[in-house]
Amino acid sequence: MTKRQYTFWFTFVSSIANIIISGLIMAALILLSTLLMNKVFHIQNGSAYMAVWMVCFIAGIILGMLIFSKLCALVIDRWFFDKLDDSILGKYLPSHRKDRGERQAEKTKTNMPSSVLPPEDTFGE
Prior knowledge:
Blueprint: H1 3-40, H2 46-80, H3 86-92, H4 94-107
Helix pairs in contact: 1-2, 3-4
């Protein structure tokens, strides 16, 4: 398979994995908060449950993204480093992004004519 095909399949499978991870985290947070509110704090107000569930939903999405990002970096670094496009590598692997940025800076280096350069400092000569 080509790099483009590997990138497509990796993105497809990892998107499904991200949805599953976020859903599991949200379900665990909602279940835990419901048990705490019901058994420990004895709260019977329905609107309190809804507010806590919304917070759990948002926290689940954020935690899911963080865990997914770290998991993708591990998977890419371990098995797919040579098989994926640079756009995916630079997104999940900061070390590769840094190397790519340095290469880009070397490519865009310009040579200015001496007429526009500031005069050299000759103090003390």
